[in-house]
Amino acid sequence: MNYFYVLAAIVVGIIAYLVFKPGKRASGGFLDWVTQPSYQRAAADYFAARQALTVPDDISQEDIQKMIDRLFQQDDDDFNADRLKLVGIKAVPLLIAALENPQTAAAKFGAGGHACDAKSPFERIVRLLEPLAPAEAAKPLAPYVQHTDEHFRKYAANALGNIGTSEVIEPLLLALDDTDDYVRSFAMMGIQRGIKAERCTSEFLDAMFPAITKLLDRQDQSTSGRAPKLLLTMDAERAITTLLSPSYFNIANKQVHYILRALNAAGCTIPHETLLPFLNAVKPLSGQYPYEYSYAEALLAYARNPDASADELLRSELNSANEEVQAAAAKALSIMSGVSNAREVVFEALSKQGFENLAAAQKHYYAVFMYDAEVRNGGHTQYFVNSSGDHWQFALEGLKAIGAEARARILQAATEFFGTTGPAKGPTIGPATACGGRRRQLAALTKKQPTALGELDRQYYACDENIEALLAQYALKHSSHFVVQA
Predict the structure, then answer these.
(1) Contact 403, 369 (CB under 8 A)
(2) Residue 429 has pLDDT above 70, yes or no
């Protein structure tokens, strides 16, 4: 999965370039980048210049202060923030001092910036402090968790959690009880980052545990299961007892699917006396949101600790009308047969061996997964502009092999727009002189028939073939290629 995000990030980065690039800002979006070679060449130059940034080893405090003062200017035409990041620890005292500047707590940038850009000088400052997370920043950061604007509260919460020492306990408890979903979510992301960096003290984590536990059944639009995952990271034994307690492990808790998902991801075994009553209670509700997610995760948990009735139940759910349940049943049957994580096996093999050395079944699995993920994320245009489009023939073969005939016909139709030989193979990102013919094909197609691939996107989204379920069953059928080798 991470590999896909890296590929998608290339496209996101190019779009970001259209907004961030030094000098005159480019207009347009992704399709303009696809069809305009000048955008592509300028993007390559932009990223090359950014990669080549340096700062003097003997940079003065005066020069550093000038760079910090410029953080208050929205436009960053010469990579000032990026250069300041290279200054490193020398900039920390002045960045902390900037937190105490009244202007920092008042300034926000106006409209017109890119969605990925900082929305305030404060956000830029805390991002620059993030790698070192100095404890000295705790005191000036603390007042921001009571700021009237949630933008300041959430970035303050993130920075404080990242510090993870006794100095931040009081303000972070306020952040974890904030009325805004995203403030609480950012606080937990900060704690997770602090744990990963081994900064969080035992005193700090002990104080955070009860506050995060309270979020296990709190209705939330942003956390997406952060609370149970974080508790397991903080203290697995204590967390399992808490997560499986009747207070939180019940169908009345609309967040219980996140608890199940976290336990499954951690490889925890849920005892039958806890799991089976829950499974029976949630099954009649499995056609409704969010119960289908709870039931799906419960099926996966059942596969990790099956009894004599598990196989029959899971096979019956392969015919479920609910897509989530159907996919979970297929994955659960794979788990029971030893195919615990086919996707991870394929991506691990890919990183070690390269695509050409994968087994045929692994190539089919990978190519289909990437095709489905790319099209769902950004349509056929994104698929063909990214390097994953090199494997379209394997994706086409794979779709047929797993039984996704309708989706195979859609991909076949998409390739026919590229001529009798289909989409060319070769790099599509980088200077135009270095790229293969597919980018030129795509540019010509997009100019001539701008809605052609878009219509196929709509057909794809309307198709009811369940790729996740079909891939799970395919991996089970070819299980020797999808088990973790000892």
Answers:
(1) no
(2) no
